[in-house]
Specification:
This protein is 24% helix and 32% strand. It is α+β, with helices and mostly antiparallel strands. Strands 1, 2, 3, 6, 7, 8, 9, 10, 11, 12, 13 and 14 form a twelve-stranded mixed sheet that branches.
Length: 303
C-alpha cells in the first residue's frame, strides 16, 4: 500500500485526455471517497436566449448570431438511484443552465470581473432549481478552450480563474539513488542519457474574492505575465536536467515539475493566491499540485 506521500493515480476518461472543453456531453467521475459527482456542460450563444436550440452539440439554434460562444458547466454530486443508475436527469441540468445561468450572462461585458459577478448572482437560483437529490457544487464558464472561471458552492464570490499555457522542454528521468539497471527498468526509454522532449500543457488556477481588494485576480494579463516570466521563459525549449537549477539533482518527473512550478509561482500574484498547478506531460498523463505537504494535495492522472 502506498504511503501518504505517494501521489494517487486515477484512470481518466477521454474527457480528461487533454485540457479541452469540447469533450464529452456527459462525464461521470468516481471520486476517491466513493461519492458520485456528475459533470454536465452546455454550449451556447448567450445573446440568443434559452429557447430554440436546434443543435445542442454545437450550441446553435434558430436565432444563432454566431457571436460570443460560451461553454457552461455544472458540477453536481449526491447519491445514485439504485433503480435507474442515475444521480439525476441530465435534461434538468441542461434546463437550469439554459434557463437560469445563460440568461444571467446576456449583455454582460466580456471582462472577468463582470462575468464573475453574473455567475455569483446566478448561483443561488441555479442551486435551488438543481434536480434533487443532486446538489450544485460548482458553476464553470469557459470563455475559450484555454480560459475558464469557476464559482464554488454557495456562490459567495470566491472565484477561480484558470489559464492554460504551453512550453516545450527536454528531460531525462534518472535517479542517482538507483543503479543504472534499476533506472532502465523503472523509466525505460525515458532514462536515455540523451533525453527526450515533451510539449507540456500547464494549467494555472488562481483564486480571490471578486469585488474586494483581492478582485485583481480578474486581471488576466497580470496572471499571464507572472507565469510567462517565472515559468515559460525559464523552461521553454530548455533541457530541464541541464539548464534549470531546480532539476540539477531532482528527477524532472511530471510530479516534480508540478511542485517546482508551484514554488516558482506561489506568492508571486498580486491580489490573489495560487490555487493549483496542473501539468500535462502527454495527452494521457498529468500531475496536479495544490501546495500541501501531504500526498492528498498531489494527484496523478494516467490512463
Amino acid at each position: 500500500m502506498a504511503d501518504a506521500s505517494t501521489p494517487r493515480r486515477f484512470g481518466v476518461s477521454a474527457f480528461l485526455r487533454f485540457p479541452s472543453v469540447f469533450a464529452r456531453d456527459r462525464v461521470i467521475d468516481l471520486v476517491y471517497n466513493a461519492s458520485m459527482r456528475l459533470i454536465r456542460e452546455i454550449r451556447c450563444y448567450p445573446s440568443d436566449g434559452a429557447e430554440g436550440v436546434t443543435n445542442s452539440w454545437a450550441g446553435t439554434g434558430e436565432r444563432a448570431s454566431l457571436g460570443a460562444y460560451r461553454v457552461l458547466r455544472a458540477v453536481v454530486d449526491g447519491p445514485v438511484d439504485p433503480r435507474t443508475g442515475y444521480l439525476c436527469d441530465i435534461k434538468e441540468i441542461d434546463r437550469v443552465l439554459r434557463a437560469v445561468v445563460a440568461p444571467a450572462l446576456r449583455g454582460v461585458p466580456d471582462d472577468a470581473s463582470s462575468l464573475t459577478r453574473a455567475l455569483v448572482a446566478a448561483f443561488p437560483a441555479a442551486a435551488e432549481q438543481c434536480p434533487t437529490p443532486a446538489a450544485l457544487r460548482t458553476l464553470e464558464l469557459h470563455v475559450s478552450p484555454h480560459t475558464r472561471l469557476a464559482i464554488d458552492k454557495g456562490g459567495s464570490g470566491m472565484m477561480r480563474l484558470t489559464q492554460s499555457f504551453e512550453f516545450s522542454a527536454a528531460h531525462r528521468l534518472f535517479s542517482a539513488e538507483l543503479s543504472d539497471a534499476e533506472n532502465r527498468r523503472l523509466f525505460g526509454k525515458c532514462s536515455n542519457p540523451n533525453g527526450h522532449g515533451h510539449n507540456y500543457v500547464l494549467e494555472v488556477s488562481v483564486c480571490g474574492t471578486d469585488g474586494t481588494s483581492e478582485g485583481t485576480v480578474t486581471d488576466i494579463g497580470h496572471v499571464d505575465r507572472v507565469v510567462l516570466e517565472r515559468v515559460i521563459e525559464p523552461f521553454d525549449h530548455k533541457n530541464l536536467n541541464l539548464e534549470c537549477p531546480e532539476f540539477a539533482q531532482l528527477n524532472p518527473s511530471v510530479e516534480n515539475i508540478a511542485r517546482v512550478i508551484w514554488d516558482r509561482l506561489n506568492g508571486a500574484f498580486t491580489g490573489c493566491r495560487l490555487a493549483s498547478v496542473r501539468v500535462w506531460e502527454t495527452p494521457k498523463t498529468c500531475a496536479e499540485y495544490t501546495g500541501g505537504d501531504d500526498g492528498d494535495d498531489e494527484q496523478m492522472m494516467n490512463d
